[in-house]
Amino acid sequence: MTSYISLSILSMIAIIVVLPVGCNRQQKRGAQVDESLACGKSSKQIGKDIYYGTCQCKGTNHPEDTKCLKKDKEPDNEDKWRVGSCSKGVCKLKPLTKECQMVPPLPSGSPPPFGCAFFCDSANGKYGFFSEGTRCKHKKSRTEYVNGTCQRSGDKMVCSDVPLPPVC
To answer: What digits encode the pLDDT tens for the residues 19-38?
Structure first.
């Protein structure tokens, strides 16, 4: 009887110690970053694919059509990261076309969007603009973002700073 009690106590201790270790283990999901393609630069998983921040490493071009990220000026004049594919060591972006007809509603209480452009089909570069007067965020410098509203500028909609109210 004593050995049975000892055995059950030991098995409970084993469950308490071993089970949390196994539960805490990280499961690898999706694609793996190829460090030879990352080359010390940032990479990002979007969906099931890895996008790399460069198309060259140590003077060698990445394989053609390797997925990449590149900062680019959007139709609303904001600098944003876009996805592309490597071609001869350069990240080539798909052309953008203004084809979105329906402006998505912004949920009440949500933070304002960054800029005034949105994508209805980002894989194919199809975009549209939020309506004039929509609250937005605008990047003034590398680290400074300000509140603004979407204002028409030619055939574009840009996020302009909201003027401060007059001082009394």
So the answer is: 333 333 333 455 677 887 87
